[in-house]
Amino acid sequence: MENRASYRVAGKCLAITVWLIGLGVIASGSRRWLPSLASEHGAGIDVMIRFTMAAAGAMILTGHMVLGFFLWRFGSQNKISFRLASHRMERAWSVAAVLVMAVVAEGGVLVLGMPVWAKVFASAAPSSALTVEVTTEQFAWNVRYAGPDGKFGRTSPQLISLDNPLGVDPKDDSAKDDIVDLNIIHVVVNRPVKVRLRSKDVIHSFFLPNLRVKQDSMPGMTIDLWFVPNKTGTFELACAELCGFGHYEMRGILIVMTPEDFEKWLLEKKNG
Ligand SMILES: [Cu+2]
What we know:
This protein is α+β, with helices and mostly antiparallel strands. It is built from four helices and ten strands; from the N terminus they run H-H-H-E-E-E-E-E-E-E-E-E-E-H. The protein has two domains: 2-78 and 86-120, no CATH class; 130-270, Immunoglobulin-like.
């Protein structure tokens, strides 16, 4: 008799614990944890992230509630009794779970995510875009603008030196007005930015958390990506690929400016 009562208490306590764990996971997951948004396409990515969190959260919550219910209801039994489900029943429940997962999670992500993917990754940057070349190396971001002629000067690995980290060929006419900078990228608000991403050594990853942009840079490849910053301010640029001992210090900034401020900065840069 005594045993029966203690089983009952243990069952109820376990049920409450399971319910609380379920609710705790949902509470911690539903806090605002995305960094402030500063790009046009980022809103679409946030919708997708929130959908994934909500879909997964609903499943976790349902699972915990059902498990808690079974513990509450049957936890006081002091002997195990069960009924075997038929194979058909087992199969039906497995298929149902797969279908729900596929429709809710995969289907939802595709429906919400494909338009964002098509806009940002499957289409070329608008012709009004400001092109910035970003060349990664251990452990810095080399930034280059084409200058007034709109053409990047030739580069060659043989010309790389401490003063010329990109190996820009000074004999090339298009190279004369190129602007080279380190760890700071200046762009214009509401004007598309096209990044030509290259790497001098190993794989790095160009990560702008606020702009919801992340792209690996690969040695031997030039990868184009584009986005539209829609807020002025200074935003973190981080390397999101463990690239060596100094990975932690590979931090840059993206400064999103008004067109007037950008022109002023450009003039200052040109006059050296
Ligand atoms: Cu890196």
